[in-house]
Amino acid sequence: MKKYIFKRVLISLATLFVILLVLFILMDLMPGTPFNDEKLTQAQKDLLFAKYGLDKPLLTRFFLYCKNMLKGDLGVSYAINKNFAVSSMVKDRLGISIAVGAMAMTLGTVLGLVLGILAALNHNSWIDNLCSAISVLGVSIPSYVCALLLCYFIAYKLNWLPILYNVEQPFISLILPAVALSVSPTANIARFTRSEMIDVMNSDYILLVESKGVRNWKMIISHVLRNTLIPVITVMGPILVNLLTGSSVIEKIFGIPGIGRLMITAIQENDYNVTIACAFVYCVMYIVVMLFVDILYGVIDPRIRIAKEDD
Amino acid sequence: MKKLVALLLVLLLLFGLTSCGKKEDTPSGGGEGGGEVVEDAIIFQNENVRKAIGYAIDRVSLAKSLNDGSVAAEGIIPFKLASNPDTGVDFRDDQGAIVAYDAAKAQEYYEKACEELGKKKLTINLLYGTNEGDSVIKAAEQIAYYLEEAGFEVNLVSKQKKERLQLMDNGEYDVALTRWGPDYGDPQTYMDLYISYNTSNNAGRYNSSKYDKLVEDAEATTNPSERWDLFKQAEKVLVEEDFGIIPVFQAGGAMIIRPTISGIQFHSAAVDNYRHIVGKDDVTLITNTDIVYLDYQYATDGTSFIAETLFTSGLTELDADGNWQLDLAESYEMNDDGTEYTFKIRDDADWVDVNGNVVAPVTAQDFVDAWDRIQSEELASDYSWWITDVLLLKDYTAVDEKTLKVTLEKPNGIFMSCLAFPSAFPINKAFIDEKGDQYATTADTILSCGPYILDSWTPGYSYELVRNGKYWFDSDYTAAGTAKKVVFRVLEDTQTALMEYEAGNIDTVILSGEQVTANKDVEGFVNRLQGYLFYLSININHYE
To answer: Which of A34, A49, B35, B60 is buried most, with the most CB atoms less than 10 Å from its CB?
Structure first.
């Protein structure tokens, strides 16, 4: 297992390096520059290019960036908050996005599992139909519609929660965005759990367990759920990364200074360093979560553990 | 083996990407696919093509349908930019409308152009920005409609703003919907743009020696009335005779301001003044963009400038009517021909830190340092030309601690009002040197010499300003009941902003689209005219 994890970490690091290079090249191909501004003259643009070292060849810039990155320096912003250290910009905003994302993920997982299990246990009954209807609705309603509805009824009409994000009461003001964000993961997890669980319950080994007289909750928890969770965890990985890296739409609606919005603005403004940093953070999180999911597989499923040890 | 394959794939991907990029760089003929491709650019040298475009657009209907307070352009100089030095009449009223909508004429010119060029159909690729506001997208679609009515075939080419500007810089466009926001209240801010050798702004390379001469003469003369007349003639040559650019509309801005507060002063040709808000101690305003840079010598955007005029001051300030009043200058003297000014800086003008403690007095040397720094190559400021081209400063010296003497190239009617712009504000050099790279990145790395102190700034979220008790005017502010705290909340979404406003948590809200119609009769609804003039830039001579 240790060898396996070590190998996986090495591959992850190599992947990240390649991703960074690709990002750099993509950035170079992006039309326009951070300094396209009707108020700037050509001479000033040249000065700015020289000032930020953008006139150097791509590879020189890349290795300089890598060197600085190891020191924790991600460069400065060219357009969004000029001359700001990107590391601090990303750090501040990532924290908020992770907070909302984690809240939404917790909510989505709990609700999704409950709905899915309920539906599977009551297969083909009205409960199943109701749960399925909720899932379909959840998948099809865009998060911004949900966000605006919540804002209007819960916050504006009933005045139970604040409409906008507020730094002074982060938890309370992040409830609505988290709920809005959790709708789609809830639905996805519920649908997946339901179908997997129905499959597992119809399998031979469960029939055997049942025939041996192990019944109800004990069987469901230690035999059915355990086997259901493996595929569910696979879908949860990407969902988690998606939530943690921020939703630009939700952040816009609730006025949350998160990383999703930052990335969109950075792309629009051609703010190279900010775009690279945001995209890179996204990739790091994705790879870390996938690594974690892989390791978790082994813990949950002995078959995978053994196969990995052989590898 | 697997790794080798993976490596190969990555290399292939990289190679593919690089070659894609190269293809885009070389403009080629043929309209399909690459929308930015210049098709028959040469057609725009034909005057009748440009006339057809000019006459085709029903500007009044277009502005009306934008529904945000925008008005039809009557020339390239916007309304409320500058007034006649002798009569005080607005430039626009003085000149009158020099553009017109005439569908029949447009068709006539279109047919004439087709004949002259030997073509059956003329195609225009209309470039516009997708992230420059709803009104730009709506306007571009309508312009396309009007041009089609006249006979043209129109392809809409939508790009992000930065890319649009890059394409215009490269000359890779036919016709582009673009804009210019005036930097100061004088026709020169527009007229300079289309001089044949201004390659930074004259994207279409409009080239008229007649126009060049008129503008050069206007800028050289010391007689304000003559200057005014020359600019009027120049605008006529550019817009009415040559159709070198096609003015379309002047931007508006709809918002609601809580009826209990007042004192926000909007200026269409200068920075809006938020220094005199009364009616509430603690005001929260909505801004849809954040501060870009706190260093007012480096900033270029309206949002930054508005905040910066709150926490810093210059020698003068603009009042509600746009006239200058003395601010940090207590008095001034001017020589007879208006080329030498001596300012006496207030004894009670001080630099104050984030905690409200006095750090140093504001001295004459602070202005000298500021004007040196903004022009330095090291800073690479976008507004370095403010000192030389707008203020027309030839020389400036600190006679003593509080006396500043400046010499101008020639008399300058807008000199005193342009001192009220952040690019002319003083700096505290010792503080900047001490902070180094950290200067102006947070509230505690900037000093205040204005009516407010920047108390905090959370990028992407809000910035808060509190009254500066050490400011020379502060006791009068207290007497007038001026807001003690002004908070700007960054919020892009207008729907939640409107809810927040109705819930009473914020005091202004910017409206867009249908919200404007829905809230027209709400108390506090304001439809302000902005300085931005949107026009069609035509690529007349800018291609290989």
So the answer is: A34
CATH code of the domain in which B99 resides: 3.10.105.10
Q: Does the residue B341 lie in any domain? A: yes
Co-location of B96 and B176 in the same domain: yes
Q: Are residues B101 and B193 in the same domain?
A: yes
ipTM: 0.85
Q: Give the model's confidence band at A306: pLDDT under 50 very low, under 70 low, under 90 confident, else very high.
A: low
Cα gap B358→B370, rounded to integer Å: 19
Q: Look at residue A72 in the predicted model and tell me its pLDDT.
A: 86
Of A237, A276, A247, A238, give the one whose Cα is nearest residue A99. Answer: A247
Distance CA B441, CA A81 (A): 9
- The pLDDT-based confidence of B35 (bands split at 50, 70, 90) is very low
The answer to whether A146 faces chain B, any CB pair under 8 Å, is no
Instruction: Give the torsion sign (CA, A72, A74, A77, A82).
Output: positive
A149-206 per-position pLDDT tens digit: 999 999 999 989 999 999 888 899 999 999 999 999 999 999 999 999 888 888 888 8
Shortest alpha-carbon distance between residue A34 and chain B (Å)? 7
Residue-wise pLDDT tens digits, A199-257: 888 888 888 888 887 767 777 777 788 888 888 888 888 888 888 887 889 999 999 99
Both B320 and B411 in a single domain? yes
Q: Encoding tokens for residue B331?
A: 């008095």
Residue B10 with chain A: CB contacts under 8 Å: 18, 22
CB pairs under 8 A between A and B: 138
- Give the residue-averaged pLDDT of B503-513: 90
Domain that holds residue B331: 261-506
| Contact map slice: A 170-229 vs B, CB within 8 A | none
Closest CA to B410 of B219, B195, B226, B231: B219
Least Cα distance to A39 among B424, B375, B304, B382 occurs for: B382
- Cα-Cα-Cα-Cα dihedral sign, residues A161, A165, A170, A171: positive
Measured CA to CA, the distance from residue B204 to residue B282 in angstroms comes to 48
Q: Check: CB of residue B390 under 8 Å from CB of residue B280.
A: no
Question: Is it the case that residue B37 has pLDDT exceeding 70?
Answer: no
Let me know whether B313 and B170 are in one domain: no
For B496, name the nearest residue in chain A, comparing CA atoms only: A253
Q: How many domains does chain B have?
A: 2
Task: Give contacts of B202 with chain A, Cβ < 8 Å.
Answer: none
Q: How far apart are CA A120 and CA A63, in angstroms?
A: 54
CA Rg value for chain B: 25
Q: Is residue B519 in some structural domain?
A: no
Q: How many Cβ atoms sit within 10 Å of the Cβ of residue A157?
A: 11
* Whether B163 contacts B63, CB under 8 Å: no
Q: Beta strands B485-490 and B282-287: pairing type?
A: parallel
Confidence (pLDDT) at A245: 82
State the pTM of this model. Answer: 0.85
Question: In the block, which residue shows the tokens 């052989």?
Answer: A310
Sort out which chain B residues have CB atoms less than 8 A from A269's CB and list them: 162
Strand duo B393-400 + B403-408: pairing:
antiparallel
Domain check: are B84 and B7 in the same one? yes
**Alpha-carbon torsion B259, B262, B268, B273, what sign?**
negative
Q: Is B256 inside any structural domain?
A: no
In this structure, are B44 and B124 located in the same domain? yes
Q: How far apart are CA B190 and CA A96, in angstroms?
A: 44
Residue B511, domain member (yes or no): no
Judgement on whether residues B179 and B269 belong to the same structural domain of the protein? no
Query: What is the model's pLDDT at position B358?
Result: 95
In this structure, the number of other CB atoms found within 10 A of the CB of residue B377 comes to 12
Identify the helix (H) or strand (E) that includes residue A86: helix A86-121
B63 plus B158 within the same structural domain: yes
